[in-house]
Amino acid sequence: MKQEIFIDLPERSNVPATSIYTEVHTQSGKLGQRDVLLLMPGGPGNDHTVCDYDEKSFAESLLPYIDVILFDPRGCGKSKESPIAYCTLEYYIDDVDAIRQYYQISPDKSILAGASYGAIAALGYAIKYGDVFKKLILIGGAASGEFIEEAKHNLLKYGTAAQQTMGVQILSGTFSFTSNTVSDYYEIMGPLYSRSFIPGMPTPSIAFNTELVNFGFRHFLKKFDYRPFLSQIKIQTLIIAGALDWLTDKSQSEIMHLGITNSQLIVYEDCGHMIWIDQWDKFIQNIIDFVRED
């Protein structure tokens, strides 16, 4: 059963109130009877559909085993528009804790997951808020802003001339987003993100906050560094990486794995950044196995 719920996050110190779009997927229609997974989208700027692929639903694939909460971050997707200054990594992390409190998610029944930038934010959340979730899943994430320089190196190593030009614009926060350039971006950069990319595929219909992705790469994505605090994370953690990920190099996942004592690292061979596209069945099964582990 899917319920679409707009929740009002109250004003916090120096942060205005806002309305957040959430999707609650349950078998019974009521949260709290089973474990629940909360997924943090990436981008920055993506909406809740970030881990869906074609007609395949991330939430529905996990529903036989766990309830799922999806949401659009502040200023993204169906959530209320927001000044970009309140959509940074720090505020994203605190918004997620407000969502957790709203739904009264019990620590002994909850798992926090994040994909790409969402994994960066989930990592930051686990460091700041401790064990209010019992498990953590990090998909294609990074431990510090050094991933940007690594991505530039990977562009030179793997990218065509067109991919290098466009990739540097993204990484420097200077990409000019129009309907045409977004279409060009997916067509040109697609083979770097996914090894199974098919040229000419329709542009994904993701409600994307283009202002936020540029703002993020110009500012807060360059500055974060969670490496000194990784040992503070004590909860069971699954780390998933693509061996050929140009954006968040697998070395970032290896750093997280070394720093988080109770962690497991799975590296997907012949996979790029969008692991769920390249190896959907294995990706979903690995997550199912992890959430079902005692």
Give the topology.
Elements: E1 2-9, E2 18-25, E3 36-40, H1 58-62, E4 67-71, H2 89-102, E5 110-115, H3 117-129, E6 135-139, H4 147-158, H5 161-171, H6 179-193, H7 210-218, H8 220-223, E7 236-242, H9 250-259, E8 263-268, H10 275-278, H11 280-292
Parallel strand pairs: 3-4, 3-5, 5-6, 6-7, 7-8
Antiparallel strand pairs: 1-2, 2-4
Helix pairs in contact: 2-3, 4-5, 5-6
Q: What does this molecule look like?
A:
Helices cover 37% and strands 17% of the residues. The chain is of the alpha/beta class. The chain folds into two domains: 2-145 and 224-292, 3-Layer(aba) Sandwich (Rossmann fold); 147-217, no CATH class. It has an eight-stranded mixed sheet, with helices on both faces. The radius of gyration is 18 Å and the shape is globular. The two termini are 26 Å apart.
Relative helix content: 25-40%
Mean pLDDT score: 92
CATH class designation of the largest domain: Alpha Beta
The Cα radius of gyration reads 18 Å
At CATH level 3, the topology of the largest domain is Rossmann fold
Sheet with most strands: 8 strands, mixed
Question: What's the total number of strands?
Answer: 8
User: How many structural domains does the protein architecture include?
Assistant: 2
Low-confidence stretches: none
Question: Which class best fits the helix and strand makeup?
Answer: alpha/beta
